[in-house]
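Review session, final week

We close the course with one last complete record, chosen because it touches almost every idea we covered. It is histidine kinase, a protein from Flavobacterium solisilvae with 569 residues. Go through it on your own first, then we will talk.
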Amino acid sequence: MAQNNITKQIDSVNNLPYQSKIANTTKFLKIYQDNLAKAQKAKYKIGIADSYSNLSLMYYFQGKYDLNTAYMLKATRLYQQLNLKDKQANSFAVYGYQLKLRDMNSAVMYMQKGMKLAESIKDEFSLSGIYDNYGVLKEMQNQLDSALFFYNKSLKIKEKLKDNPGIPYSANKIALVKLMQNKPSEAKTLLDYAYKIRSDIKDVYGIAENLNYYGFYFKQIKDDKQSISYFKQAIEWSKKHDFPYLTQDNYKELSSVYERNEDFRKALQAFKNHIEVKDSIFNSDVRNKQSELDIEYETEQKEKEILIQKAKLAEKNLWILGGFSLAIIAILLGFLLFSKQKQKTLQLQKENELKDALLKIETQNKLQEQRLRISRDLHDNIGSQLTFIISTIDNLKYGLKNQDEKIINKLTSLSGFTKETIAELRDTIWAMNKDEISFEDLKIRISNFIENAQIASSGIDFEFNCQDHFAPISLSSVEGINSYRIIQESINNALKHAKATKVSVEVLCQNQFIEIIIKDNGIGFNEATTNLGNGLSNLKKRAKELNGEILVTSQLKEGTTVVLKFNKK
């Protein structure tokens, strides 16, 4: 009976709702590490395998993809040993879906392994989800006929199983592909089918989503009157039921319809509303998280004050007792009591000092956890939204490939700008995830950037030299990102404006200083007559945050040199 209770506890933790797990991966990472230890102690193999699977999921959302892969493989091997083919199939498929933005070939391979295994055991419920996700991979590869094939397979299974919440998801996916294939009547039939089911089961979020799809549908077929009507309905429904992400997207789409009709006043107002809702989402998240920290900090301060007051009161009472005792008993006994009081006071002081140290450590840990949570939100929310924008732009380019070349060029420019934004976001997350950045880590980051610049810039010779004795040196996250950004901006300036054939980066350790020199052999400029504007101001601002200094020198036809110098630690 005791063994059964332990396994039930392990299973209950492993089977917690998906949304609960990913809401706080730092917390649940520790929970599943403890759950794994319990399962291993109890020699409960299913619990061990499920804990491996959950740890893989936590590491995926934290961006630790090496650990994500390692624990997925451990879970899969153990499921295979236990002959749990349904769980093994889902493990392969989930991992394949997680790989879609990092390695499409591997994503397809793992998804197919999971699919074949689920098909071999005729696990229809698992297959409905796997077919949908495999269709997403095909759609991302612009293989629209294949995407439709798997979306339809999923829809048939869901209809057979009477999976009413799942049916509209597949129907809408098929409708959007039909719309991309310029088959609006088929798309409309599927959208109506999905909307009716969601209305019947009172799926509030699903109704909001389908109203958005209707607006997009009529926008694509250029029925702007209907498109505007549905986007307004979608906005009203989303606001009523508090779906801010859908609300801001509806405002954005509504703005583009107004703009196409040259109603620029309404287009501007709708776009302002889009920005306002988008900012409120971000500000609300930040305020809520900051408020939690403020409340925790204030509580800790109050507890500290109470301890100090108790200590003072205890000290006062003991002094009174000592004085009264001195008046009654001999001087020797009074001296002993005074010594004892002094010892207790010192003990209380040490206890308070220890309490202060523990409070400080706990606050620092919570602040670090907050930083990780914000960086994860940036990665999961903003990063995925930017990736979705790129995918949408590429799909629009494909759908408009025979249309106005100016529009295609504009979409290409917008796609490139969004990809650069994702790269900068990843650099920022890289810095936020670390308390300290080793110089070796920064060196690798710089080297990778220069290699990418070399690939993208034909006819330019890059050189990177860095001394080997930087191992004991570390930088804060702010120092690391500012050093990296200065080098990045200096190289970009050389590529865009200098017409250089050679760019060199050299990192030196001079006494107590670190010196970084970026030099090109380009056309240069006249320092006396050229206004460097915001570019130099940004470099100086970053150098100031490093408590260092930056010097930019140049002569016509002799290139430009940027020297950054700051104290090492």
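Two points worth writing down before the exam:
The mean pLDDT is 83.
The longest strand covers residues 502-510.
Good luck, everyone.
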